[in-house]
Each structure stands twice: as structure tokens, then as C-alpha cells.
Design goal:
Largest sheet of chain A: 10 strands, mixed
Number of helices of chain A: 16
Structural class of chain B: mainly alpha
Strand content of chain B: under 5%
Helix content of chain A: 25-40%
Largest interface: A-B, 35 and 34 residues
Radius of gyration of chain A: 22 Å
Oligomer: heterodimer
Largest sheet of chain B: 2 strands, antiparallel
Helix content of chain B: over 70%
Distance between the termini of chain A: 64 Å
Order of helices and strands of chain B: HEEHHHHHHHHHHH
Distance between the termini of chain B: 23 Å
Number of strands of chain B: 2
Shape of chain B: globular
Shape of chain A: globular
Structural class of chain A: alpha/beta
Number of helices of chain B: 12
Order of helices and strands of chain A: HHHHEHEHEHEEEEEHHEHEHEEHHHHH
Strand content of chain A: 15-25%
Number of strands of chain A: 12
Chain lengths: 393, 286
């Protein structure tokens, strides 16, 4: 039996606004079939939760990874709703708690957390304000892939803490003009690549990758103190090959473009897109040992001042067109089903959207080391071991 | 207290109060914090020396501290040495301030732009390598000129030289040219004038310029990260990790105060050396 698809909030809103061009891009087939629905939407649109604009507008302060504020995708929406975005860029996930913890936390309206930081932020630090999902109607079971709807990383105790909006694999980016296509991390140990690789200085991705490369795959984030020492010992040959520890994605882009490095470990999949803008071709590969899955979720900190606008902003980022646009330019995954047909071929081919369960099974979304434990190495011990690794001890 | 003193106090009070509120009070709080214990971003009031013991017994801390200090010391020496002749020229030879403005012009660009600028100059396909390759002097880029402590020092000297120049120039303005002429009339040569007249008279400015650069260059963690290659760890980064990543503010505070103690020790030693060499008299000449 054919399942009748429910119209998304975005489609209803586009119809209510008479924005048929946008509506047609969202769902051309439904436009042809749904004249009656449009009529209904015209009448009901203003009463749909989240379409009310009385509380939406003004400045919304964002703190996101470089290129993930979705500002270009939401330009039209922002102009229409009188929303101005004040953006700042994070270089590690730790920057977020750095701003939100302490005696004088920064008043951010919207920021993001890596899936690993969920309970740490919500329960230990208490910096997340639960989300009123009725104000984010695009986040619903029909439109969002099951793996991203109310999953354990974003929803527990009957409370929505975060809204996932982008995901992907951190892996290896290389310059084909400077080296052969690597199939294994070990390929980076070739003598001719000495001083030609870099490791990005980001705990959330580098630590689990180090666990894979350093000889304790499948154990992160719960590794014993002995295993912690073993894995960083196993990483030393890679350190010896390094030119530097890159400070950020922007830093990696700069080094690849200048020809200072041939490859970077555990890095954002959108790097090739960015280097191509500067006429340098780089490629993204997943070595046979595997890569690290990540998923970033929006959240509104307790310090948020323009919360309704922040929630409306989240809602818009989940619409099909913005989702597809972000994924196409950042080479990431989408969480909205309707975005898949809008993806370019290469981006769509990154993941099997018909079987995401298998994708998550092969590259699970990992947590972070425990803050306190007698059995496993703690986060603090990981930081110290990583500092020692970088120092060359 | 006479009227002039009262006026002086009144004029000084805004910056004095500002310093009390935004420097002295936070510093005292940080010092108190350094004796606390911590649990994931929650400082627990206590009076323990664990944080100091942990830092002082860490091999990594000492290695990183030495690397930071080495970068700071070399940067400070080079910055002061490079700006001293320029300051002398501006103070006694130049008729205008054009040279001063040219040196200060680098302030018109941001810190990060200057760091990335150095990367473009020193990089594999940067200005130096490209020029040398086009001239046929090398056939492969010189890899050793970037991503090591040398490139960090080059960039930091460029960043701090305007500061040291201003401090030295300010000190030299008080050394009137008549003093130098008098010394010459009494038979002193250039070295004697430098060591017996100029340096003793500007020693405070000299020490200020040196310590200012030493402290800021040793604590910098952006330039080492972007230019320092795998030797990019600095004490600043270690402290930053404790405040941002692990949330162990007491431990971060303890490391900050150990660094402070090291700088204070260097200051004391420097002053003692200058006095031993009769380069830093106890009294002011002017």
C-alpha cells in the first residue's frame, strides 16, 4: 500500500506564503498533486506552530564550526524575518564549554555539541536548556531519519536536549599531486612523506582515530591506562612524520593549498571543497582501518537571550533545501529525508541512506572518556597523555 | 598632601582602580584557586599543594616550560638588540619620526594576519623558496625555514619589536645629547658612552622592554601552533587546556603561578647581573 506522505512544515509554510517556486523545489510532485492541500495550507499555515513570527527576529548569536553556521543557506529566511546572525567560530568542541562555564558565561543563542558531549553538557555542566520541540516542527519522525530522531545522544528523560543537523566521517584528506592514494593509515609512514603530513589538534576526532591507529581499535572511549599508553606509543611513528599539529580546519586548508603538507589525518570531509576554491585538488579517503563518525547537534545554552529565534533558526536548518546545500558544500550527511534527492551524486554516494543502520553499525557515534573512573583512563589522563605525545615524550 | 599631589592622585586613580579590579583582584582569586581541588569544571575549596606538586613533578611541564622560555628569551634578546640601534638613530640622528612610523605600521594589521604572512613568506612555495628556486640556487624548497622554533622567533620578533622600540625610545628621550657630548669631551669612547652613560640611564626601560617581550613571547601559543611545527607546545597551551578542556582551573592556576615565579626569578637575576656589571645604579639619574 502506498504511504501518503505528510507535508512538512516547510512545505506548508511555503504554500501559505504563496512561495510556489520554493515549494516546487521542495517537492515538485506534491505540488502537482496537492492543490487541495495548498488551499488548506493557506488557511491553516499561520496556526501551525513555529510559523508565528511575533517572537522571531533580531540578532541571534551563533557559535559554530567554520562553515557550519548555515548562514548562506538561511540568508533568504533571515532577511524575510528580520534576523541578523552574529557568528563566531569554534576551533575545538572545548571552546564551547570555555564560553559557557564560569562566573560570567557568554550569552550565546545557538551553538552545537558533538554527540560525545551530550550528557557532559546537559547533566554535569548544566549548560543546555531543554528544547521545546513544538517550536521546531521540522524535527519530526516523518521527515527526520530514524537514527537522528530522538536518539540517545540528543533525547533522554523525555527531554530533547539537542537537535542533530549534520554528520559525517572524519578521515584522511590528501593531495593526489603529492602522494599516491592511501588505502591505509600506515601508508602515511612512507619515508618520502616525512614532514609532509599533519594531525589536526582536535580531541573529539583525533583521540578515537589514535585509538584505531595506535592499536586499540574498538575500545575508545573506554580504554585502560595501560592501553592509553600503548596507543600513544603506537602513534609516535606518525608524530615523527608530522610537519605540525594543525590548529584548525582553516589551518589545514592553508597548509594543503601552500603545498606544505600532502595529507592530514582525521579531518573534516569538506576540506577538498575548500581547497578546490583555491585551485588545489585534494581528495578524501576512508582508510581500510575505518574512520570516526561524528554528529553535531544544535542546542540553545541557558545563556540564550533570543531563544525563540534560535529555535526558528534550528527549524529552518532542518528544511530539505538548506540541509542539502550544507551537505553538498561540506561533504557531510543530511538528517532530513527530503534532502537526499537534492544532494549531488558524489555527496549522496557517501552514505547508504537506504540503510543508515548499517552505516552507524560500521562507524558508531562514540562518546568521550569518563571524567572520573578507576577502571578506565579519564578525560584528564587523555589530555595529559595527548599533551605528552605532542611534546614528544 | 599639597594640591599638586592631590591632582596627581586624582588623575592616576582611574587606571589605579581599573588595575585593582581587573588585575589585582583576579590575580589574587587565581592564586587562591591554585590551592583548590577540582572536579570537571567545579573548583572545590581546599588548601592543598597537590596542583603545584603535580606540575613540578611533571616531566612534560618542564620540557614545555623550557621550550617556551627559550623562545621567549631569544625573542626578547633579539627584539631589544634589533630595536636599540633604531631607537638610538631616531633619538639622536633622525630629524623626524618617519622611521618610527614605518616600524609601527605593522600594527595596522592584525596579529593573525602577520602570522599567516610569515607562513606565506617562509612556506614551501613561499616568497623565499620561490625566489631561490627561480634563481636556480636550490632545486627543492628549504623545509627547515618553517614549522620550527626558528620561524616562531622570527615572527615574534617582528610582532614585539615595535613595543621594545617604543619603550627604549621613551627611555632614550631622557638621555639628553648634552650628556653624551660631555662624556665624549671627557674622553669616553663609543663603548664607554654606551656602557657607562646610556645603559645605566635607560636600564629601567631596557629591563621593561626585555621582560615585557619575554613574558608575552613565552606565553604566546598562537604563533607556536601555527609556525612551530611539532614543537608547538607551550606553557600557555598547557594552561589553556586546563581551563578549556579538562576544566581543572586550580591546576591551570598553579601552572600560571609557577610561570609567574619563573619570570620573577629571571627579573631578579637580570637586575642582579646589571648591578654586578655596574649597569644598573640604584638611583635615577634624571
Amino acid at each position: 500500500m502506498a504511504v501518503r506522505r505528510i507535508w512538512t512544515h516547510e512545505e506548508i509554510k511555503a504554500a501559505a506564503d504563496g512561495n510556489f517556486e520554493l515549494l516546487s523545489t521542495l517537492n515538485r510532485r506534491h505540488l502537482l498533486q496537492g492543490g487541495a492541500a495548498i488551499a488548506g495550507a493557506l488557511a491553516l499555515g499561520p496556526f501551525i506552530p513555529g510559523t508565528a513570527r511575533a517572537d522571531i527576529g533580531g540578532e541571534v548569536s551563533l557559535f559554530t564550526w567554520e562553515g557550519f553556521d548555515m548562514e548562506p543557506e538561511l540568508k533568504e529566511w533571515r532577511e524575510k524575518n528580520g534576523v541578523t546572525a552574529k557568528n563566531s567560530t569554534m576551533t575545538t568542541q572545548d571552546d564551547v564549554q570555555g564560553k559557557l562555564v564560569g562566573g560570567s558565561p557568554v550569552a550565546l543563542d545557538l551553538t552545537e555539541y558533538n554527540q560525545a558531549y551530550n550528557k557532559f553538557y546537559a547533566e554535569e555542566l548544566g549548560i543546555i536548556e531543554p528544547i521545546d520541540v513544538s517550536k521546531v516542527p521540522n524535527y519530526n519522525a516523518n521527515d527526520i531519519f530514524a537514527g537522528f530522531y530522538q536518539g540517545e545522544r540528543w533525547y533522554w528523560n523525555n527531554t530533547q536536549w539537542g537537535i542533530p543537523f549534520t554528520w559525517g566521517l572524519n578521515s584522511l584528506v590528501y593531495n593526489p599531486a603529492m602522494m599516491e592514494r592511501p588505502t591505509s593509515y600506515a601508508d602515511l609512514l612512507k619515508p618520502e612523506l616525512k614532514g609532509k603530513i599533519t594531525i589536526i589538534d582536535d580531541n573529539t576526532g583525533t583521540w578515537p582515530t589514535a585509538a584505531i591507529m595506535g592499536g586499540v581499535p574498538g575500545k575508545y572511549p573506554n580504554v585502560t591506562k595501560e592501553e592509553l599508553a600503548t596507543l600513544w606509543e603506537g602513534m609516535k611513528p606518525y608524530r615523527d612524520q608530522c610537519k605540525s599539529f594543525a590548529a584548525s580546519n582553516g589551518d589545514v586548508i592553508s597548509m594543503l593549498v601552500s603545498g606544505d603538507i600532502a595529507a592530514c589525518l582525521n579531518v573534516w570531509s569538506g576540506i577538498p571543497f575548500e581547497t578546490a576554491k583555491q585551485n588545489v585538488k585534494t581528495d578524501y579517503v576512508i582508510p581500510k582501518e575505518g574512520a570516526v563518525m561524528w554528529c553535531d547537534a544544535w542546542f540553545t545554552p541557558k545563556t540564550a537571550k533570543n531563544r525563540d529565534t534560535a529555535l526558528a533558526y534550528i527549524n529552518e536548518t532542518l528544511a530539505a533545501a538548506p540541509q542539502a546545500s550544507l551537505a553538498n558544500r561540506a561533504v557531510t550527511g543530511v538528517v532530513t529525508k527530503g534532502a537526499v534527492p537534492l544532494l549531488d551524486e558524489a555527496t549522496r554516494a557517501l552514505f547508504d541512506y537506504n540503510d543508515l543502520d548499517s552505516v552507524f553499525k560500521s562507524a558508531p557515534m562514540l562518546g568521550i572518556p569518563p571524567r572520573e573512573s578507576t577502571e578506565f583512563a579519564t578525560y584528564d589522563e587523555w589530555v595529559r597523555a595527548y599533551e605528552d605525545f605532542k611534546t614528544g615524550i | 598632601m599639597d594640591r599638586q599631589q592631590r591632582m596627581g592622585l586624582l588623575l592616576a586613580s582611574p587606571s589605579f582602580i581599573y588595575s585593582i579590579i581587573f588585575f589585582v583582584v583576579p590575580t589574587v582569586l587565581l592564586f587562591i584557586y591554585s590551592f583548590f581541588r577540582s572536579k570537571a569544571f567545579i573548583p572545590i575549596p581546599d588548601f592543598v599543594f597537590d596542583n603545584y606538586i603535580r606540575a613540578l613533578s611533571s616531566k612534560g611541564f618542564w620540557i614545555v616550560a623550557w621550550l617556551s622560555l627559550k623562545i621567549g628569551l631569544i625573542t626578547a634578546v633579539l627584539s631589544v638588540a634589533a630595536s636599540f640601534p633604531v631607537a638610538m638613530y631616531i633619538a639622536y640622528r633622525s630629524k623626524g619620526n618617519l622611521l618610527l612610523y614605518l616600524v609601527l605600521a605593522s600594527w595596522l594589521t592584525s596579529y593573525l594576519v602577520r602570522i599567516y604572512g610569515w607562513r606565506m613568506i617562509l612556506g614551501s612555495n613561499g616568497l623565499i623558496n620561490s625566489t631561490l628556486m627561480q634563481l636556480g640556487l636550490i632545486d627543492q624548497p628549504l623545509e627547515f625555514i618553517l614549522y620550527n622554533p626558528v620561524s616562531v622567533v622570527i615572527a615574534l620578533v617582528h610582532i614585539f619589536m615595535p613595543f621594545t622600540l617604543l619603550l627604549l625610545l621613551s627611555a632614550l628621550r631622557d638621555v639628553k645629547s648634552e650628556y653624551l657630548e660631555a662624556a665624549r669631551d671627557l674622553g669616553a669612547g663609543p663603548v664607554a658612552i654606551l656602557l657607562k652613560v646610556i645603559v645605566p640611564m635607560i636600564h629601567r626601560g631596557l629591563v621593561s622592554a626585555f621582560m615585557f617581550t619575554l613574558i608575552l613571547a613565552s606565553g604566546d601559543y598562537i604563533a607556536p601552533q601555527l609556525l612551530g611545527g611539532t614543537n608547538s607546545m607551550t606553557v600557555g597551551l598547557l594552561i589553556s587546556n586546563q581551563f578549556r578542556a579538562t576544566g581543572n582551573w586550580p591546576f591551570g592556576a598553579a601552572m600560571a603561578f609557577i610561570a609567574f615565579a619563573i619570570f620573577a626569578l629571571i627579573y631578579v637575576v637580570l637586575i642582579a647581573l646589571l648591578r654586578a656589571g655596574r649597569l644598573a645604579p640604584h638611583r635615577r639619574f634624571h
